[in-house]
Amino acid sequence: MKKETMIRLVVISIVLFIGIMLEIFLVSVLKLGLVISSIALAVSYAILSLGKLDVSEIGYMYLWGRPIKIVDPGPYIALLGIYQVKKELKTFYQDELPAEPEKIYTGDGQTPDGMFLPIRIKFGQPDGTLKDDPYDQPMVVEVTPVVQWYICDLNMFRSTIGTVEECRKSLSDKAIEVLNDRFAQMSPAKALLDLAKVSEEYEKELRAETAAWGIMIKNAYVKPFNFSHKLNMSVVGVASATQDAKTKIITAEADKKAGILDGEKIAKALSLKLKAERENTKALAKMCKTSEGQIVLWINTYTEALKNAKYSIIPGSELFASVAGVKEMLSKIQEGAQS
């Protein structure tokens, strides 16, 4: 048993002894009721001077406000009215700043009692590397820093911060200060890509800022940003419109290319057709030097005329006479060939 505990036990024993001796004296001169009251008062004082510190707690003893010593887990004696023991949990606090999600108020108007406004940070200008990202632009975004911490020196903690609630408020202020400086240099799109690096810097700076608070930062990071529903819908709309525009451009370019290819095919076909017609014309010209060739030329001419005509050949017309003349000429040629 430690020396301080022995001293307190001795003091209590002395007080109890004095009380008992006083009671013995009072038995002889006073009524029994007063004796019983004195005994009860002494016992009550001793009981109220006893305390217990759980293993999950950290405690510190004070003598009328002056820090004395750390209190170990287990039972302790602190004379009522003379010594005070202050306790806090020494387990980890895992806090989303400025408060847990159910206590964050995102509505309009005055903040209800017990609620907190989210941390909103103004992000900086884009650097041009993510120009196709809809979040690559300056905007105000809700940011949720997270910190895991515990009290390592209760006396220092109480003398610098005071309470757990005040510590959370101070951690929130420091987080805003650190992240404002960092995020003012980048867009939300860039910050999301560098979120792990930003979280490391945030944790490092938070450790340095809280070194004299009597707490230990175990872990700190920034959660992925909470973009508002309205902003997300706008971004989705822009992305959809952009995608539709790209689709139309691709379709138009495809149609244009297809048209060019079709034109090239048609031009090539016409070229081949013209070439074939030129070849046929040359052959026909050679034939036209002979009487048979001339007859073929006439026949072709009348054939095309009859093919494209939307009318009938009427006997007595010039075209009918020409056809009859050709028929007569053919008969004479045939007779000459037979002779």
CATH top level label of the largest domain: Alpha Beta
Instruction: Compute the CA-based radius of gyration.
Output: 53 Å
Which CATH-level-2 architecture of the largest domain? 2-Layer Sandwich
Task: Fill in the CATH topology of the largest domain.
Answer: Tetrahydropterin Synthase, Chain A
Strand percent estimate: 15-25%
| Distance between the amino and carboxyl termini | 157 Å
Q: What is the overall pLDDT average? A: 75
Largest sheet: 3 strands, antiparallel
Helix-strand string: HHEEEEEEEEEHHHHEHHH
Structural category is alpha+beta
Shape: rod-shaped
Describe this structure in words.
The chain has 339 residues and is α+β, with helices and mostly antiparallel strands. The protein folds into three domains: 3-87, no CATH class; 93-227, 2-Layer Sandwich (Tetrahydropterin Synthase, Chain A), CATH 3.30.479; 290-339. The protein has nine helices and ten strands. A three-stranded antiparallel β-sheet has the order 3-2-5, with no helix packed on it. A three-stranded antiparallel β-sheet has the order 6-9-10. The protein has a two-stranded antiparallel ribbon with strand order 1-4. Helix 1 runs antiparallel to helix 2, helix 4 crosses helix 6 (195-209) and helix 7 (229-288) packs antiparallel against helix 8 (291-308). The model is unreliable at 234-241 and 310-324 (pLDDT under 50).
From the structure above, extract its key features.
10 strands, Tetrahydropterin Synthase, Chain A, three-stranded antiparallel sheet, rod-shaped, 339 residues, alpha+beta, 56% helix
